[in-house]
Specification:
Low-confidence stretches: 1-26
Shape: globular
Structural class: mainly alpha
Largest sheet: 3 strands, antiparallel
Helix content: 55-70%
Distance between the termini: 66 Å
Mean pLDDT: 81
Number of helices: 11
Radius of gyration: 26 Å
Order of helices and strands: HEHHHHHHHHHEEH
């Protein structure tokens, strides 16, 4: 058989299998997965709910949207047991789950780190329970029992400061084991959350004690609720930053970044 015949058979027949070059092939190599788009989506919904809460009663003059109408109550971030409350609780639950995932992944690398992340998961879970069951509102009786002044409407802040100290201590315990943006996310998010939940709520109480219930008061409690949610989102982002998420051969692999990548 001549060389031309062989060449003709190769050109007219089916193409031979191509063996990839081991130096250039990406098959089987892991590639990092980014959750940035998910984070931006959560941030967008959080801000949107806050804006809608202010805009609906301000722009739509209807019995359902003003003077504590049903639509206003359903959308107002100041009201418990409605759409914004569901969203806030969900963010806390997501954060608790993420911290639990990091704890389980970190167990093989550092058990001390794993226990610290577990502590954060428990605290976020308890805060979600508080948000859903309005536990902090029920602390008013305790606050009124120890308060010696009148005119301040948020007595739950008195025992709430103690609860906030417990949360801060737990997050600091986690934060000191971290570095870089992961540490900044945990500590910065916790600080923003507690300042919004306690500090801005105290400012609201002072406004009410001074007889202010107009636009300034409304703006204050919207800033409070937005700050709380942004703090939780920042803490959740820290958990994502503590992991390296890879896709390899159709499977998702989670790796704890450890001291070198934090």
């Amino acid at each position: 058989m001549t060389q031309e015949t062989l060449d003709g058979a190769g050109s007219s027949g089916s193409a031979p299998d191509v063996v990839p070059d081991a130096a250039t092939s990406t098959e089987g190599k892991p590639h990092a997965v980014s959750l940035r788009a998910v984070g931006y989506a959560l941030l967008g919904v959080t801000v949107l709910l806050n804006v809608v809460s202010m805009a609906v009663p301000a722009l739509i003059d209807h019995p359902l949207t003003t003077n504590r109408g049903e639509i206003q109550n359903y959308l107002d971030v100041f009201v418990e047991g409605n759409l914004p409350t569901w969203w806030s609780t969900g963010l806390l639950v997501v954060g608790a789950v993420l911290y639990g995932v990091v704890a389980s992944v970190a167990w093989a690398a550092s058990r001390r780190d794993a226990w610290a992340w577990t502590c954060g998961a428990v605290l976020l879970g308890l805060m979600s329970l508080d948000d859903h069951t309005q536990l902090h509102e029920r602390l008013d009786r305790i606050g009124r029992a120890v308060a010696t002044f009148d005119g301040f409407p948020f007595y739950w802040l008195i025992p709430g400061v103690l609860a906030g100290a417990v949360v801060a201590a737990g997050m600091v315990y986690l934060g000191v084991r971290l570095r870089g943006r992961t540490r900044a996310g945990v500590l910065g998010g916790c600080a923003l959350l507690l300042w919004s939940a306690l500090g801005m709520e105290a400012v609201q109480g002072l406004w009410i004690a001074a007889g202010e219930s107009g636009p300034l008061y409304v703006l204050t409690y919207h800033v409070e609720e937005l700050g709380e949610n942004l703090g939780v989102l920042l803490m959740a982002a820290a958990a994502v930053w503590a992991l390296r998420i890879e896709r390899r051969d159709g499977a998702t692999v989670l790796r704890y970044r450890g001291a070198a990548g934090r």
